[in-house]
Amino acid sequence: MATLTNGQVDGTNGLVNGLSHSHSPAGCGGTIPMKDHDAIKLFIGQIPRNLDEKDLRPLFEEFGKIYELTVLKDRFTGMHKGCAFLTYCARESALKAQNALHEQKTLPGMNRPIQVKPADSESRGEDRKLFVGMLNKQQSEDDVRRLFESFGSIEECTILRGPDGNSKGCAFVKYSSHAEAQAAISSLHGSQTMPGASSSLVVKFADTDKERTIRRMQQMAGQMGIFNPIALQFGAYGAYAQVQQQQAALMASVGQGGYLSPMAAFAAAQMQHMATINGLPGGPMTPTSGGSTPPGIGAPTVTSIPSPISVNGFTGMPPPQANGQPEAVYTNGIHPYPVLQEVGGCFLSSLSEAQSPTAADSLQQAYTGVQQYAAYPAAYGQISQAFPQPPPIIPQQQREGPEGCNLFIYHLPQEFGDVELMQMFLPFGNVISSKVFVDRATNQSKCFGFVSFDNPGSAQAAIQSMNGFQIGMKRLKVQLKRPKDANRPY
DNA sequence: TTTCATT
């Protein structure tokens, strides 16, 4: 059917031709719908983005009277998100639809079958969903089910696959209860090594939204090209344009206390930072937090942050305490640069419920990831400053600081030169020198270098925030430089 | 080795 394979649906019959029996429920035209008190809201996934409510309605109406059907759209762009919520007047209709459709049919243009299942809001599934890693890539969903079925009733089992359909060697398994999931972890985690897997089976609770957010931010940081100094200096304003939309999204989500897309947060924070540095007004980023918004959830309160125009302004300046976090959560009381940290705080404020001294370790862990994330855009701000304005102090000569002030940095991006290296570390203090080592023959960076500060505190702060910082696929190694004569036996 | 998406 050409209409469908082209993804062109005329809205009156396109989809139904393939899927429904053109049956209309009798007796419900024109009535005001009422739903049962035990109705179930269904989540519908894998919907082609060119189908709207009126296209979808016929497909679902055959299972009963629809109370509400809403295609999810981006709040600002209006972009179809490829999924919908569906509530039938009768609970029974939802069950019938789920049975008949879930994973049973692939809509035109989609490469995975339609999803019809209770919405997250109906159940709260996170605490019974497991991530299973280190599977053999040949193992099917059924194989995984067999492995897990003795611990409880499995509601969902999905092998993660790439675009080519190949297994990524991991899966999600959702039980009907937390206890069942826990039992599976106890019995299966590390219990065996699948042929071809590089280590033993991993069975753990799947990431929470927050963990996923953090993971995504890290990935995004690698993707956006912001670690490439060329892109940084010449592409900053292009990036600015690209993300404006997302900034708008950030504003409203923050204002409404809604979900904050990591991309939006990241982009907005960058722009905020740039605006601040360039002495521009913060645009529409008026903090709207208040009322029930928890501390730290507000828009990054740039207005409350001293303008970081002075390079020295970064030195040892204690940032505002987002969330009222105790000092203890920062190792040694050393703080990353404040601007993005507040955005970090935004994500973390909810991670840090139920604070207690015993929670300090896990908090520290949580902070480490975000702190790392938080740190770079500070450097980014500095670099963007270099674009419209003369660059900050460039060291005229190699100077080594006192012991404890000199850092060795490994796994630098290939493109990084002395200046980029310095800019990356400026947020932590006065950089008195920076040197990337280059291959004499090729003039290519050897991807390591040295940075010297004028005081050990700055060096420690830099280690704290930048060691392990993910850039693309690599993580920076940032440690104290060994004293000159160390490790020389002669 | 953490998903395509959950107002």
From TrEMBL:
Family membership: Belongs to the CELF/BRUNOL family.
GO term, biological process aspect, one: mRNA processing
UniProt keyword RNA-binding present: yes
Protein name per UniProt: RRM domain-containing protein
Source superkingdom: Eukaryota
Stretches assigned to the RRM domain: 40-121, 128-208, 405-483
Keywords: Cytoplasm, mRNA processing, Nucleus, Repeat, RNA-binding
Keyword RNA-binding attached: yes
Pfam families documented for this protein: RRM_1
Major location category of this protein: cytoplasm
GO CC terms: cytoplasm; nucleus
